[in-house]
Amino acid sequence: MKKESKLPSNTGSYQLGAKRKVAHIALLLEELLGIPVQARQRAKPLDMLIATILSQNTNDQNSYRAFTNLREKFPTWEDVLNAKTSSIIAAIKTGGMANQKSARIKNLLKEIKRQYGTLDLSFLKKKTNEEIFEMLISLDGVGTKTASCVILFSLRREIFPVDTHIFRICNRLGITVHSKTPDQTFEVMQPLIPEGKAYSFHTNLIRFGRKVCKANNPLCGECPLYDECAYPEKEKRSMVLSAPSKRKEFDFMILDNVSGQ
Ligand code: SF4
After folding, report:
1. Do 151 and 57 belong together in one domain?
2. 31: part of which helix (H) or strand (E)?
3. For this structure, is 145 an active site residue?
4. Ligand 1 surroundings by CB, under 6 angstroms
5. What is the pTM of this model?
6. Rounded distance, CA 93 to CA 101, Å?
7. Are residue 142 and residue 169 in the same domain, yes or no?
């Protein structure tokens, strides 16, 4: 199936109300969780692509360990491209699904080399968001979330990636009630993000999803967004007594900690 490559534009009629709601929630989250600050050193686009693959279906600590092991064992991405698959599997096994992920990483490196003749993707900096997005999602195994993470975290541009946490919370809050997939939510959300707040809102929503608006046990009784929320179960859930987690590891995000070669 051909992948959709168009970034959504800022048009539509319902957007004024939705924009105000999103801006208000982004502000409330900054008051609750602070304004996140990006690391000084930018990760290279290819590092970010590989880190995003490693982060799938595991937690950020495990995937970060897999990423650092891989970088220690293979100093360059050319080394990974030329390595035996079994050596890559051994290096990333702490991240889970090592067989599938090693095959995806190898294929991705092969395809980038074939298409661009290099594994250095720094030329992306000269492209527009739309061009970068189109180029990245044309690569096998790279979807909307991965491409938008590269643009936000590595190139530091305004784009709002949507993962499963953000998909779930936007639906519960009633911002994207008709979205059936994270990719649909991605399209709805782009024009709604307050200027300059893509990184802050993305990061804070993920933290909020890990600590408060959890998938199976949302802490509605403790929730600072209760009045903004359209989740039909919120009243029933607010009767359940539990406290927000203070565990620090919920704040750790692999894509904030990837460093360049
Ligand atoms: S009220 Fe409950 S469902 Fe709504 S945002 Fe808060 S924790 Fe999530």
Report:
1. yes
2. helix 15-33
3. yes
4. 172-173, 212-213, 218-220, 223, 225-226, 229, 231, 234, 237
5. 0.86
6. 9
7. no
